[in-house]
Amino acid sequence: MTRRGCQEIAQTIFGIDICLGSVCKLHEEVSESLAPAHTQARESLPEQPVLNIDETGWKNQGKRRWLWVFVTPVVVFYHIAASRGSKVLKEILGDEYQGVLCSDMYSAYKKFHDGVRQFCWAHIIRGIKGIKHSCRSPDAVRFSKWMLSETGRIFALWHAFQRGELDRPTLVLKSVPIRARMHKCLQQYAQSRDHDVRKACKSLLKHWHGLFTFLEYEGVEPTNNSAERGGRPAVQWRKICFGNQSDDGELLTARLLTAERSCILQGRNPFQFLLQSVLAYRNGLPAPSLI
Fold it and tell me: Which of 102, 151, 254, 276 could form a cystine bridge with 52, CB 3.0-4.6 A?
C-alpha cells in the first residue's frame, strides 16, 4: 500500500483520521520492532545446509539498487544493497559458505562460493527452448531436441523419486547413462558454427559440476524457483511504490518482506506476528522470533 492508501483505509474502514506524517511514524515504529527478528534471520543463514538465492532490481530515490532474496526451508530473508556483486554475499554469509548454494549462473555467486553448487534448470531449459524456437540452423534444431529429450528423462526420474517410486541410490544410478549422453551432446556441438549453440554448450560444460547436485544431496531442488517466487511480491510492491525514498525505507522494505514471507512459509499469520512485534517493542519485551 502507498502511504496515502494506508491513510484512506484508516479513515474509510476504521473511522480513524490520521495524517500522513503519523503513517510514516508508524512505519518507522514497525521497522524498529522487526529489527531483532530480521537480524536473527540473517544470522541463521550461514548455518543453513542449502540456500536458494536470487536478486532483482530496486530503486532508492531513482538510483539503482538490488533486492537480494535468501530462501531456506524455514525463513525468507531480504536485503537491499547498492551492489549486485559478491561483496553483498560476503556481507550476509561471511567469507565462506559451507552448504549447497542454489542460483542461476551469474558470476557473482561463482566468485563468492567455490563449493557445492546447484544451477537452476528452469533457466537452462528456457535457454535451450529459445535456441529451438529460433531455428537458426540445423545444429540449433538437433542440439535443442537432443538436450530437451535427455532433460525430460532426468526430470521423469526426479518426479518418480519425489513420488516415492525410487530411492536416492536408484535415482543416481539410473541418471548415469542420461548424464553421459547429455555430456556427449554438449561436447559434440561445442564447436558448432551456430553461435548460440556453441555458447550454450561451452557454458553448460563449464558449469557441469553444478548441474546434477540435486540428485545426490537432500533438500536440494533442480530449480531456483523458491528464490524467484520469493522475489515476486517485492516486484509487485516495486510496481506500486517505485522503490524507496530513503535508507530507512529500504530497511522497512527488507524487514517487512522478511517477516511476511517467512510467516507464510511457516504457516503463521503475518499480521499477528507484526502485532506481537509492535506490542513487544512498545512494552520493552523480547521480540518474537522467525527462527
Answer: 102
Is the overall model pTM greater than 0.85, yes or no? Answer: yes
User: What is the domain partition of the chain in residue ranges?
Assistant: 3-116+224-282, 121-215
**Tens-digit pLDDT profile for residues 1-34:** 788 899 999 999 999 999 999 999 999 999 999 9
Please give the Cα distance from 79 to 189 (Å, whole number): 40
Instruction: Give me the amino acid identity at 22.
Output: S
**213 CB-side CA count, 13 A:** 23
For the segment 262-273, the average pLDDT, to the nearest whole number, is: 96
CA 262, CA 159: separation in Å to the nearest integer? 27
Give the per-residue pLDDT at 94.
Answer: 93
Band (245; pLDDT cuts 50, 70, 90): confident
Task: Return the SS3 of 163.
Answer: coil
The residues, any chain, with a CB within 8 Å of residue 224's CB and separated by 6 or more, are: 52, 53, 54, 102, 103, 104, 120, 122, 123
Residues paired with 65 in a beta bridge: 58
Please measure the distance between the N-terminal and C-terminal CA atoms of the chain and give it in whole angstroms.
27
Asked if 178 and 153 count as a contact pair (C-beta separation under 8 A), the reply is: yes
